[in-house]
């Protein structure tokens, strides 16, 4: 992989199958053009309704109204902050090794934008929202008349539903800028590739491989996915900047989940101190000098800083492997106390945060909302453009935006009738994924309570 392909100005849209490497490689103002292109991507994201919806999408606590608890929006802003820190540290270390990459110096805005959009395709109610969609289809899809006509990949798109793949669909197709765009956000291929964690289709998942352990793209975006990879020169590989984005994401949610849960009263200072000491085999963390709350804050700040320094070191140490596509690990993996503490915090979150009754009860509520919405809307969308709806079904269908019908018509323009049901199901899933937590609950309560 070469940086003059990885970081470029070429834009990808679902309306254009033309693909080529960066089209300004020899332009005298190439680096300036990169800045203009990535600033344009950033503005497109910031001004989008999909980005604004993140302010009412769950990070950890579904339907929470306390203002200290993070949402997907504040989480994404924190990830953007960490990407800058990581990139600065990587560039400094590479320069010390005599490696100077002009394109990498121009990638700050690219990575910030990737951080802002990395969760933009996730449904309401956090990762349990994804699970709710998978569970609905595993229980109900075999009962649908159209299901047997789907390919294995099309079936697995729903059974293995993944927010990362939905992000690519949203960015390249669903976003329509209030009706003025048929090309999604029309972002650069470099920005899009920087959020693609996985390279597998839904029927090729191999959980033992970091590249294929989850769905990277849906059948509906297969050509768009391939175009992105051709342009950036990363076919079969991760974009190197994905390693930095993934580390920034891990840093942000691991430490913020611990902070939010403490403020929420889900654990005590004594509990986390004892847990960390036992898992790391040292008592050097969480020294209570003034107050327990202050000790936790200081511990989180210092440990987070040292972990991102460790992550940048690992990236540089394995730079050649990353650039050749032969590095398959995570960059937060150094054998040091801080990284051991980081992994211990992940275990602590699972035991003391995600398994608490407060979280589990809210997840059940979110599951029931998504389950009911899918149960009501899927039979309706399967009638669209095929058979008459009764009055109740018409009223339900009218809740979908007109852009959903327009996208369906574009995607099925050259399809046989038997192939269209896949895209009809997409209409319902897209509709629910675009909802915020609050809107999903409001619509559910308005229609069915």
UniProtKB/TrEMBL annotation:
The keyword Translocase is assigned to this record: no
The keyword Hydrolase belongs to this UniProt entry's keyword annotation: yes
Keywords: Hydrolase
GO molecular function, one term: dGTPase activity
InterPro entries linked to this entry: dGTP_triP_hydro_central_sf, dGTP_triphosphohydrolase_C, dGTPase, dGTPase-like, HD/PDEase_dom, HD_domain
Residue ranges occupied by any HD domain in the UniProt entry: 72-254
GO process terms (BP): dGTP catabolic process
UniProt cross-references to NCBIfam families, sorted A to Z: dGTP_triPase, PRK01096.1
Name used for this protein in its record: Deoxyguanosinetriphosphate triphosphohydrolase
Annotated source species: Enterococcus silesiacus
Lineage start: Bacteria, Bacillati, Bacillota, Bacilli, Lactobacillales
């Amino acid at each position: 992989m070469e940086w003059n392909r990885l970081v470029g100005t070429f834009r990808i849209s679902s309306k254009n199958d033309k693909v080529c490497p960066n089209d300004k490689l020899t332009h005298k103002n190439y680096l300036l053009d990169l800045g203009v292109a990535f600033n344009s991507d950033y503005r497109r994201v910031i001004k989008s309704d999909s980005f604004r919806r993140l302010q009412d999408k769950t990070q950890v606590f579904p339907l929470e109204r306390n203002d200290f608890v993070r949402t997907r929006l504040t989480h994404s802003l924190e990830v953007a902050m960490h990407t800058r820190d990581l990139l600065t540290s990587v560039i400094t270390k590479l320069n010390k090794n005599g490696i100077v990459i002009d394109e990498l110096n121009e990638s700050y805005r690219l990575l910030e934008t990737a951080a802002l959009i990395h969760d933009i395709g996730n449904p309401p109610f956090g990762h349990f929202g994804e699970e709710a969609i998978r569970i609905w289809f595993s229980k109900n899809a075999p009962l649908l008349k159209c299901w047997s006509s789907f390919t294995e990949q099309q079936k697995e798109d729903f059974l293995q539903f993944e927010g990362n793949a939905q992000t690519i669909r949203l960015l390249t197709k669903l976003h329509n800028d209030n009706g003025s765009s048929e090309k999604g956000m029309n972002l650069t291929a470099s920005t899009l590739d920087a959020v693609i964690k996985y390279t597998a289709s839904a029927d090729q998942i191999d959980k033992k491989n970091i590249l294929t352990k989850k769905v990277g793209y849906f059948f509906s975006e297969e050509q768009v996915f391939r175009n992105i990879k051709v342009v950036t020169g990363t076919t079969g590989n991760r974009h190197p900047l994905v390693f930095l984005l993934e580390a920034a994401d891990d840093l942000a949610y691991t430490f913020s989940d611990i902070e939010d849960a403490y403020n929420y009263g889900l654990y005590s200072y004594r509990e986390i101190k004892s847990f960390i000491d036992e898992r790391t085999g040292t008592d050097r963390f969480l020294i209570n000098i003034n107050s327990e709350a202050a000790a936790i804050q200081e511990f989180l700040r210092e440990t987070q800083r040292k972990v991102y320094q460790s992550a940048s070191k690992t990236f540089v140490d394995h730079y050649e492997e990353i650039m050749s596509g032969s590095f398959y690990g995570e960059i937060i993996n150094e054998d040091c106390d801080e990284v051991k503490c980081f992994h211990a915090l992940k275990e602590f979150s699972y035991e003391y945060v995600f398994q608490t009754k407060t979280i589990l009860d809210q997840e059940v509520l979110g599951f029931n909302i998504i389950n009911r919405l899918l149960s009501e809307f899927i039979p309706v969308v399967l009638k669209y453009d095929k058979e008459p709806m009764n009055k109740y079904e018409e009223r339900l269908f009218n809740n979908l935006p007109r852009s959903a019908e327009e996208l369906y018509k574009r995607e099925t323009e050259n399809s046989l009738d038997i192939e269209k049901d896949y895209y009809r199901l997409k209409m319902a899933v897209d509709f629910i994924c675009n909802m915020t937590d609050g809107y999903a609950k409001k619509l559910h309560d308005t229609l069915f309570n």
